[in-house]
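Sanity check. The docking grid for alpha-D-ribofuranose depends on where the pocket ends up, so I'm generating a full predicted complex first rather than guessing from homology. Inputs follow.
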Amino acid sequence: MRIYSVGSLNIDYFYSVPHFVRAGETLPSAKLDILPGGKGLNQAVALIRAGADVVPCGLVGNDGEMLLDVLKSVGAKTDRVIKKDMSSGHAIIQVDPAGQNGIIVFHGANFAYDEAYFRKVLADAEPGDAVLLQNEINDVGLCMTVAKEKGMRVIFNPSPFDNSIFELPLEKVDLFLCNEIEGAAMTGKTAPDDILTVLCENYPNADALLTLGGAGAVYRDKTGVFRHGVFKVDVVDTTGAGDTFTGFFLAALNGGSAPADALRTASAASAIVVSRIGAALSIPTAEEVKEFLA
Ligand code: RIB
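Predicted complex below; grid placement will be based on this.
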């Protein structure tokens, strides 16, 4: 199964700060790192590093060469990532001493999608292939519809969450990938098992993965419920942890791993990424993850 990753590519500006800036405050930053990111790019890189068959799709602006370079550096084709005559998306990311982040996203080229683009990049998809989407591009619902017309599986990460998500054709989703905040917003529940129960009741065709930060992750499919805790590491920056989990988890499931093993591999990959600053460039290779687990 090929996974078509249709999502955002951002230039991430990481500001190291003593605390998140407060209303009316001017806060000096000790350090600025300008690095490639965006949920779509991070997830595509994680899938590729984990060994999945991935088709990266997306839109960048005139300043997007560094984003294309990341895909080239991991051996991906970039012919479906189109340059628009505008700015790339970017993110302003505050990182505090505990490694927690606060993010502002400017959409830029990530909001220049149209139906013709979705039809073109998914043209060679076959029934059973999957499209992986997040909520950081425009017309996500349209892409779901085009993918379903082609008999594809729809994998949806409702991140960042906003209420427009409820207007999407969510009945087309085969697999939800949420963190606890997105899961709570989707279901009105707070306990992880309740979130998964309501999500799978509301969307009976779907399986669901819920990541729980320091409390690990839970996955529910038609065969059961599977859990895994986190591997303890020194946290430098949590940006991209969820995206890395997504990529390694999907790649492992896709490669035939049992859900419990896929959770373990993805937890290890996430533990490595949070011990480094940055998103796309911090994602470990499959070998690094194997060494970590050994
Ligand atoms: O999920 C992490 C990503 O969110 C960052 O790379 C940033 O670009 C924002 O999209």
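Relevant for the grid: Residues 116 and 122 are 10 Å apart (CA to CA).
Also worth noting: The chain is about 30% helix and 25% strand.
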